[in-house]
Write a structure and sequence with these properties.
The chain has helices spanning 10-22, 26-38, 45-57, 61-73, 80-92, 96-105. The chain is mainly alpha-helical and 112 residues long. It comes from Amborella trichopoda.
């Protein structure tokens, strides 16, 4: 596509990003994130939610928590969907105490 002179826009990058996440190829999705950042595209909460959900589904709670913290660190606002994904991931791993901590920490500052 790029070789033909067509350059992806935000919409195409978002769709390209979500495909490997859904297919379980998290590393490919992470590489696309860096490519998107290099091109100046800003991720929205939906991209973060997709990546967090994929990590939780794969049982990689450390990765999910890292991405979750990244959202907060860059000034992003996790929404209720983000919180539900993290809580579900912890509950599936039987990390009830971690789920409670996330819930308590997230009581303020969530976007509806």
């Amino acid at each position: 596509m790029v070789r033909r002179g067509h350059h992806p826009d935000q919409f195409l990058y978002t769709n390209l990003f979500q495909r490997p996440c859904i297919g379980g190829r998290t590393r490919v999705a992470l590489q696309l994130r860096y490519l998107m950042a290099e091109k100046g595209y800003i991720e929205d909460i939906n991209n973060y939610n997709t990546l967090i959900n994929r990590a939780c589904t794969a049982g990689k709670m450390e990765m999910a928590e890292k991405v979750f913290r990244e959202v907060v660190d860059i000034g992003g606002k996790p929404d209720l969907c983000t919180l539900n994904i993290i809580l579900r991931g912890h509950c599936l791993k039987r990390n009830i105490s971690e789920a409670r901590l996330v819930r308590e920490d997230s009581k303020t500052g969530l976007e509806a």
